[in-house]
Amino acid sequence: MPLRRCPHCKGLSNFSPGIPVHIRDSAEVVQLDICQNCGKPTYYRYPSEKRTDVILDAYPKLEREPDEELPEGVRMAFGEALKSLNGGIWNGCVAMCRRALEEAMQDLGAKGDSLFDQIDSLEVSHGITPALKERNGLANRD
């Protein structure tokens, strides 16, 4: 079975195949395959039990587009991050995630010259909670 991108952990992974269930009046099968990276299941629909290299459908689906409700700058940067992630362009993904965070700071009216100063200013002005800052590693400057 070829490597696939897991919709849960987003990593390229081998999947442990489940038991194929045949769809009535069709050669198609569905099966619950398990990601060997994160151990979470994904339902796949294949053209036949012998053709699991072609995926007809899957659930859950990989994220392809950012939420339309995001501010324009954040949405564009996050969209580029998703494209990079889905294309395996890891450094580009990280760079665009940072850019999306910078756009979010600007949208929230954060003050400061560096991203960390902006995050600190949002914490002080109660734009983000100290717990959110700590949990997401935003407090580590070193």
Query: What is the CA-atom radius of gyration, in angstroms?
Result: 20 Å
Distance between the termini: 42 Å
Residue share in helix: 25-40%
User: Stretches where pLDDT falls below 50 for ≥5 residues?
Assistant: none
Order of helices and strands: EEEEEEEHHHH
What is the percentage of strand-forming residues?
Answer: 15-25%
Helix run count: 4
Shape assignment: elongated
Give the overall average pLDDT: 86
* Largest beta-sheet details: 5 strands, antiparallel
Number of domains: 2
- The count of β-strands is 7
Structural class: alpha+beta
Can you walk through the features of this model?
The protein has 142 residues and is of the alpha+beta class. The protein folds into 2 domains: 56 residues, no CATH class; 64 residues, no CATH class. 35% of the residues lie in helices and 17% in strands. The protein has 4 helices and 7 strands; from the N terminus they run βββββββαααα. The strands form 2 sheets. Strands 3, 4, 5, 6 and 7 form a 5-stranded antiparallel sheet that branches. The radius of gyration is 20 Å and the shape is elongated.
Please summarize what this structure is.
The protein has 142 residues and is an alpha+beta fold.
Give the helix/strand layout.
Blueprint: E1 4-5, E2 12-13, E3 15-16, E4 21-22, E5 29-35, E6 41-46, E7 57-59, H1 72-86, H2 90-107, H3 115-124, H4 130-135
Antiparallel strand pairs: 1-2, 3-5, 4-5, 5-6, 6-7
Helix pairs in contact: 1-2, 2-3
Keywords:
two-stranded antiparallel ribbon, 142 residues, 2 domains, 7 strands
